[in-house]
Design goal:
- With 391 residues, the chain is of the alpha+beta class.
- It is 36% helix and 22% strand.
Length: 391
């Protein structure tokens, strides 16, 4: 996006990429359908960025969700609004959009240089790259850094830039997992039987926060859309207290009294697990989660009253022991402090150097907010660099 803004303004632009091809993380983002942005009203949209919202507002106002949709359509990829309000290309994948975008950039004169890992600056202020043919030094009139956070490092964003900028005195908040899973000390029986099983139609709660959706049991914990929606609060609680207790409502749409009525029926010759599955319409993994919670508390499901069972079914406690590694997170929190940037996304301590995307200290939930802010800040940094070049 920065290259597009610059080349449209008449600048000569080269994109240096450490990977063998462009847009690898963009393609990963499209693996589940490429959620480009969200259709909700802009004030509600901006609130998703939490404390960083005031710092991102100008960039997103300049390139809002409707502009992103028009941009995609101009590349031959019209969009649609899903039932959740999320916006997707009608092709429902990233590759056609990326190919069309790269063709347009190429036609406009943008040059790409691959397998070029940025290592910092030399004594003359030139950009230094580690390349297949050896080190290369490039003199640039303006530089836009768009090096990502530290999630999915095999796709290029490994956070190695933090040391380079910190050495220049740039304040950087530590990179932390965002939209991530969490570790749970499952019993061996539960882990072996239910790894990879989804919990569907659940509601999660932590303090005053609620999230509806799905979660997935992993060998070492739990992840999924509903978990990601609460990851910031859970991460901070674990950092402060060493753990966090998440509660799961397995049948959030069934009134408590109705559950009690169903669970008060005679189970006859059924095993207790089968009775629970049929009476409360619980999946095997949901029953397993109930058993996991009671065994850990030294209790027995079969010894509980219908009232107690109904309460537990819609408030199953899961003790989160830690945050899953940042390499597996969808995105990352932390990065360059906004106080280090001017209104044009230039790093104040490094004149002519701009930064955008997940390098900056913001986070947002999944739902189109991550890509929207990356597109918008990329464009803003490109326009800022263009202003600098025209001085």
């Amino acid at each position: 996006m920065a290259a597009e803004a610059l080349v449209q303004g008449g600048a000569r632009v080269t994109v240096y990429d450490s990977m063998p091809s462009a847009g690898r993380k963009f393609l990963m983002a499209g693996r589940g359908g490429l959620n480009l942005t969200h259709s909700e009203p802009l004030p509600q949209f901006l609130a998703r960025y939490r404390e960083a919202a005031p710092k991102l507002t100008a960039a997103i106002d300049a390139f809002p969700p409707d502009a992103l949709r028009a941009w995609s359509e101009a590349l031959g990829e019209p969009t649609f609004v899903g039932s959740s309000g999320r916006v997707f290309p009608k092709a429902f994948k990233a590759s056609p959009l990326l190919r069309a975008w790269l063709r347009r950039l190429d036609a406009s004169g943008v040059r790409f240089a691959f397998r070029q890992r940025w290592m910092g600056w030399d004594g003359e202020g030139r950009l230094v790259f580690d390349a297949p043919g050896g080190a290369a030094a490039i003199a640039a009139d303006a530089t836009v850094l768009a090096l990502g956070g530290a999630s999915w490092p095999r796709l290029g964003s490994d956070g190695g830039w933090t040391a380079i900028l910190a050495d220049k005195g740039v304040a950087i908040s530590p990179l932390r997992p965002a939209n991530s899973g969490f570790t749970v000390d499952w019993s061996e029986i539960f882990r072996t039987r239910f790894e990879g099983q989804p919990l569907k139609g659940i509601t999660l709660s932590f303090g005053a926060r609620r999230a509806r959706g799905e979660a997935m049991i992993t060998s070492g914990g739990i992840e999924g859309g509903a978990i990601y929606a609460m990851s910031a609060e859970l991460r901070e609680a674990i950092a402060a207290n060493g753990e966090a207790v998440l509660h799961v409502a397995l049948r959030p749409d069934v009134h408590h009294g109705e559950l009690v009525k169903r669970l008060s029926a005679s189970r006859g010759k059924q095993s207790f697990s089968n009775f629970l599955r049929k009476a409360a319409q619980l999946s095997p993994v949901a029953v397993g989660l109930l058993q996991e919670a009671t065994i850990g508390a030294g209790r027995s499901l079969s010894a509980m009253s219908a009232e107690q069972l109904a309460e537990l079914i819609n408030a199953v406690p899961i003790k989160l022991a830690g945050v899953a590694p940042i390499a597996r997170a969808i995105s990352s929190a932390g990065g360059i402090s906004f106080d280090e940037l001017d209104a044009n996304f230039m790093i104040r301590k490094l004149p002519d150097v701009f930064a955008a995307g997940e390098m900056l200290d913001w986070e947002a939930p999944t739902g189109g907010y991550l890509l929207q802010a990356s597109f918008a800040t990329g464009g803003a940094a490109g326009r800022g660099a263009l202003k600098r070049l025209r001085r």
